[in-house]
Amino acid sequence: MPAIQWTESDTERSAGWRSESGARPPRRVITADDRMNADTAHKLACEGTALLWRGDYHGARRLLEAIGRRIDRKPVPVGDGPAATFHLQRRARAHRARIMGMLLVLLDGEHALDLRRAPDVRRACTEAYGPPDGPTAVSLRELLGVIGAQQWREKGVEVPALDARIHPHYGVFSPVRSEYADLVAEAPLPEAALSPGATAFDLGTGTEVLAALLARRGVARIVATDANPRALDCARDNAGRLGLADRIEVTGPTLFPEGRAALVVCNPPWLPLRPTSPLEQGVYDAGGGMLQGFLDGLADRLEPGGEGWLVLSDLAEHFGLRTRADLLSAIDAAGLRVLDRTETRPRHPRARDTSDPLHAARAAETISLWRLAAARD
To answer: How far apart are CA 361 and CA 365, in angstroms?
Structure first.
């Protein structure tokens, strides 16, 4: 684990450095407390100086919010068209995250936060990071995300199509946008998938919501895969909570498991760009690699009469990151044919937010379920 160094009470100190966003340890760290005002904190953070907070916990939260307000005073960048605007906004979000990530807190050797009025974060940090390994510095912004994730994990997310709650783990994409689950719940299952002993694959399972839907719809056995170790733990947890552990096998890290299936479902990240952190891997698929891997491997993994279901948003098309012709060409080149396509519209608030510079693209988005079969069948 990398480390940070700072001076406190004329003593040189150090601690491990943890960053789920992949940020490097700050080169300069000073201590700060409730006497520091937001203008000074913002200026130091912009200059690359990290602030290790030693004051009141709620004071740190207020300071973080104040730094965010100062960053947000700069107008939202707008480019010439949706593609340029999207890239400018992503760059602006990365800048905001970097500056706000300069306010740090110290977790002790038990993942405890030694600040006045601080909550007990030990369980949340253990669930996110694993067992403690000595004192560790982490950005307050990240820690707040860890705390929020632990609350979501306890509460769960209601999935109407499943008529149950799914419990996302930290670092695993949460099914808060349930439109894609509705598509999988309503699409006609191939006859082969309903035969006794039939197997389905759920590739990139995440929280395991789609595997659970297939099991509830009568598929006898589902093999769920993921490359993310946190997702594998999350999927097993949810299978147990739903009483489906005997029908859902979770394996990884891999895309395709061994063997063939009557149904292969894949909901890859929807935007073909490189994720800048592990936490972005549920949204960004570098170069469309997972999508291409699914298409290229599908024909050889289907049982006779089997189908592959690709669940994909066309938001990348509206952002100028991929064209529909590109997608159709990739399907054809993989030896596949399109049996049918069903679609739905997004219901999340951003699709209705007219103040969003990308509102036109988001409002035009559709989420589709492409039913694919091997061209040779």
So the answer is: 6
